[in-house]
Structure formats: C-alpha cells, structure tokens
Design a protein that fits this description.
- The chain is an all-alpha fold.
- The chain contains 8 helices and no strands.
- The longest helix has 41 residues.
- The chain starts with a helix and ends with a helix.
C-alpha cells in the first residue's frame, strides 16, 4: 500500500511540475516572440507591417488567454485592442475591450477601455445608441477622468454630420 501511495504521489508531483514548467516555457516563448515583434514594429528602425501587427495582436491575445492571472495580461489585451482599433476592426476591438473590462475591472486600463468602447461604437461602427450608453457609463463611473470632457463633447455631438458640427462651431465663433 505504501508503495502504491508513494508511486501515485511521485506521479502527481511530476504532473504538477511538468504542467508548471510547460506553462513557464509557454510564457517565456510568447514573451520572447512579443518582444521581438514589438521591437520590429515599434523600434527606432521600425517599419510598420499590417501582417506583423496582426500576428503581434494574436500573440497578445494568446498570452492573455493562456495566462490570465499574469500581471501583464491586461496590458497585452489593451495593446491588442489598440492594434485592432488602428486596423479598423471595430467588432474585434469591442470584443477585446469587453474582455479587458470584464476580467480586469480594477486595472488601470479599465476607464480608458470603457471610453474606447464608446468611441469605437461612435466612430467605427456608427452605433450611436451603444455609444451613448457607454459614454454615459464612462462619465458616471469616472467623472474626474482626463477624458471626461471628451466623453461629454462626444455625447453632445452624437449623430451630427461633419457639416452640422462645422456650422455650430462657426456660430460659436461669431
């Protein structure tokens, strides 16, 4: 009986250690790939490449999905949302921001994620009802945030055409 217990204990220990080391290996591998691509895309001699940016975004998402408790995961999600937004991928950007908002509510990027969600609905997807809901939510949750004035301005001008905005601006300056 002791031999069976010893054998099972040893196997359990090896499984736990193996899982932990494979998780560490994945973390190291992903971080290495991420750093390499970040240097290529954003370094001094950077040449922006859409394909590399999409791959970097996928690496960020894979890292955050496979290591959600890691302290850099919310930062990587925010960076993935930034790339997605730059590439005009509104629905994907909303999904990434939702993940960040839901899974990391106390993170420093949470307020900006709520604002960006409203911004994407407003400017990229043309959904003024959703934009209004999230700008309002942002202002209720973060009335002192540095983007509170921007959210207020956006709410005041939701649905207006560029011509209407120009006309209003001209009237204000007369």
């Amino acid at each position: 009986m002791k031999k069976v217990f010893y054998l099972l204990s040893t196997l359990l220990f090896m499984m736990i250690t193996g899982c932990r080391s494979s998780s560490e290996a994945e973390k190291t591998s992903l971080n290495s790939q991420i750093q390499s691509l970040e240097k290529k895309l954003f370094g001094q001699d950077a040449n922006y490449n859409d394909q590399d940016a999409r791959f970097l975004m996928q690496l960020y998402l894979r890292y955050a999905d496979s290591l959600p408790a890691d302290s850099v995961s919310p930062d990587y999600l925010f960076k993935a949302a930034d790339i997605s937004l730059y590439q005009q991928r509104g629905q994907q950007t909303i999904g990434i921001l939702d993940q960040l908002i839901t899974e990391y509510p106390g993170h420093r990027h949470h307020p900006m994620s709520v604002f960006l969600k409203a911004f994407v609905y407003d400017t990229k997807m043309g959904d003024t009802a959703a934009a209004r809901r999230f700008y309002t939510s942002f202002l209720q949750e973060f009335p002192e945030h540095e983007f509170a004035d921007d959210a207020t301005f956006a709410l005041r001008n939701l649905g207006k055409s560029p011509e209407e905005l120009i006309r209003e601006f001209e009237q204000m300056n007369q």
